[in-house]
Amino acid sequence: MSVVSAVAKQILPLFDRIVVQRAAAETKSRGGIIIPEKAQNKGLEATVVAVGPGLRDGSGSFIPLCVAVGDKVLLPEYGGSKLEMEGEELTIFREQDIVAKLL
What we know:
By secondary structure, the protein is mainly beta. The protein is built from one helix and eight strands; from the N terminus they run αββββββββ. The chain has a six-stranded antiparallel beta sheet. Strands 3-4 form a two-stranded antiparallel sheet. A hairpin with a 2-residue loop joins strand 6 and strand 7. The longest helix has 6 residues. It is elongated. 18% of the residues are buried.
């Protein structure tokens, strides 16, 4: 079992929150040039690690989320709450902050 899946089993986000793990930043360009660490930008792609049950509507029933565990999503450049558990860096977002779901 990977470290991320073990951490994901310890976290249950509330309501419409989603826990994601960002993809590693590119260290080499397509042409083979090595990119310095300061010039690397954070990856905007991530994998969903854990999802909450969804928001509640007026009658009290849950509205399901559009993403599921394992989906690849596109994140905004800024935002989210950083979380570090067992050496893994994860980020928590609300569902409405997710830019797109990658197919």
